[in-house]
Write a structure and sequence with these properties.
3 strands
C-alpha cells in the first residue's frame, strides 16, 4: 500500500501542531477531529477556535478529506500567526 497522506499534510501551509483524532463511529464510519494549536500565539482567543469534526466512511475520507481541511487550517494558522505578530508589535510601543 502506498498512501500519500503525509505528503499531503506536508503540503498544507500551517504553523503549529496539527492534531488529528480518529475514532470509530457507527456502522463503518470514522469520526475525525482536526485541531490546529499554535503555542506561539499568546492570545487565549485561539482556544475558542473549534476543531473541525467529520463523520464519514473511510472511502469518503480518502476522496475528500484534504479538500475539506485545507482552507480552514490555513485560515486558522494565518489568524494565529497574525495575532502573534501584532502582539509583538504592541509590546514595542
Amino acid at each position: 500500500m502506498n498512501a500519500n497522506f503525509f505528503n499531503q499534510i506536508a503540503q498544507l501551509d500551517f504553523t503549529g501542531n496539527l492534531q488529528l483524532t480518529i475514532a470509530k463511529g457507527n456502522d463503518s464510519n470514522l469520526i475525525v477531529s482536526v485541531l490546529l494549536n499554535n503555542e506561539g500565539c499568546g492570545d487565549n482567543a485561539k482556544n475558542l477556535i473549534p476543531p473541525l469534526t467529520f463523520n464519514a466512511t473511510p472511502q469518503e475520507f480518502d476522496e475528500g478529506f484534504f479538500e475539506q481541511i485545507t482552507t480552514p487550517v490555513q485560515k486558522a494558522s494565518g489568524l494565529m500567526v497574525d495575532v502573534n505578530r501584532q502582539q509583538k508589535v504592541d509590546r514595542l510601543f
